[in-house]
Amino acid sequence: MDPSMGVNSVTISVEGMTCNSCVWTIEQQIGKVNGVHHIKVSLEEKNATIIYDPKLQTPKTLQEAIDDMGFDAVIHNPDPLPVLTDTLFLTVTASLTLPWDHIQSTLLKTKGVTDIKIYPQKRTVAVTIIPSIVNANQIKELVPELSLDTGTLEKKSGACEDHSMAQAGEVVLKMKVEGMTCHSCTSTIEGKIGKLQGVQRIKVSLDNQEATIVYQPHLISVEEMKKQIEAMGFPAFVKKQPKYLKLGAIDVERLKNTPVKSSEGSQQRSPSYTNDSTATFIIDGMHCKSCVSNIESTLSALQYVSSIVVSLENRSAIVKYNASSVTPESLRKAIEAVSPGLYRVSITSEVESTSNSPSSSSLQKIPLNVVSQPLTQETVINIDGMTCNSCVQSIEGVISKKPGVKSIRVSLANSNGTVEYDPLLTSPETLRGAIEDMGFDATLSDTNEPLVVIAQPSSEMPLLTSTNEFYTKGMTPVQDKEEGKNSSKCYIQVTGMTCASCVANIERNLRREEGIYSILVALMAGKAEVRYNPAVIQPPMIAEFIRELGFGATVIENADEGDGVLELVVSKIFCVINKTSRKKTW
């Protein structure tokens, strides 16, 4: 493999995804394609970012591969972005005869490894990797006989080999980026910032918690790039003033390889305030340790905050602050501002303290009855439309992240899910609505008993009440409508469906429309049979409703309603639905 070809990244818009099952399917199928090193699909942004080998794949072939799965894929920017690579020099430590072929085949099968060169005489292996996907420690775990030769570490970049980068109008900038916990974080930052106009190159280091950006100051400002990184939930700080490039790519590499000293000031700073207070906050919306790190690093950087302890398990934060400089309400807003729209924060308690030297032990003595001993209930939700374990994993993954959910167990065989939740933060109706939003039919089990909540008054309760009203009033009940004598029937060709979730999504939404008596969608045939009131609605409008859901829809004119023969050529079936209640011959 010729490393001079480098590695490229392309972002493809994908229409037709309706749930996380679709995301999982695309990532699994495209991730197996030869030459694809990494793929990240976003349901919210409706796109897929793919890192690939340009010798084996092109943006066009990747687009066609997604199209073949039944989705609509579009490339808005045909020019792929270069991806930075590193070359690791590993020395063989074993004294026995070395299985070079085994080492080479093992490493080449690893995602993120683009090239292998072996030097038997020097007992050295040169491995070219994509650092956003794999690192040196993972390589050493695969082949324990190898050890990293730090003295001969050589950084390479397909993007930096172009000496035209050293133009007078380009500037190199180093930014401290906090909150990154895995290589997915670095890929996200590199992908989004690299697409901004004026950004020439970007390299994000997980180990050093920093980003090196080469940009054109007449097109984009430092503040704009900082805001874009923080909008993704990562606090960013300018480490050095921007420096114009004058000496070419070698100096760029030297600057990028400069070791970074860890910053300990923000975490260890503990000023002796004369008027210290401690406030406890409940934080909904935290999903992982990255969220904890983001909140702690952002709040601890404030001058009037002496210490902060965030607990992911208890969904809480204990903040010690200078009461003469800031109020608990301001701190609450500051936490929510760490990632706007993601966190929902409420104040549970405030304890005054006269100690001039805050200690962590004093923080642990604060009573947290509501946090440490939450009241939990269990509810059973019937779920129709699941066809495989992918659906089960999708539901468990999404619902487990909802505020107030302690645990969830979904049974494919029983077509239901058992959810343990905190009734102060959510309700069975809210959970049922969340599952329906994923494209499944969800109903509360008749065995569910009314909740009896005995707890202190909470500031969350009014919000929960309004949330429950949203789900109660905002969703039209899906009920069987009495079919009139003047009903008509039409057939609609539907494209873009990939699984039973798509079928359930179309059927559930169209049943709610005025004038539609019933709808039956066939996944494999790609057809929908609709019975409707012609005085209220017409087939073209029905097709438009389906298109608004993200699918392709065309009215089939002169459909033969008698017996006939339909030949189907079906490929790449991901899941099949078989319900005995659906007895229809197409």
TrEMBL record:
Cellular component per GO, a single term: Golgi apparatus
Location of the HMA domain: 8-74, 85-151, 171-237, 277-343, 377-443, 488-554
Entries under PROSITE patterns matching the protein: HMA_1, HMA_2
Listed SUPFAM superfamilies: HMA, heavy metal-associated domain
InterPro entries: Heavy-metal-associated_CS, HMA_Cu_ion-bd, HMA_dom, HMA_dom_sf
A biological process from GO: copper ion transport
CDD domains associated with the record: HMA (cd00371)
Keyword Phosphoprotein attributed: no
Locations listed in the record: Cell membrane
GO molecular function: ATPase-coupled monoatomic cation transmembrane transporter activity; copper ion binding
Chief place where the protein resides: membrane
Coiled coil: none
Pfam families (alphabetical): HMA (PF00403)
Membrane topology field: Multi-pass membrane protein
Keyword entries, A-Z: Copper, Copper transport, Ion transport, Metal-binding, Translocase, Transport
Keyword Electron transport: no
PANTHER family referenced in this protein's UniProt entry, alphabetically: P-TYPE CATION-TRANSPORTING ATPASE (PTHR46594:SF4)
Protein name: ATPase copper transporting alpha
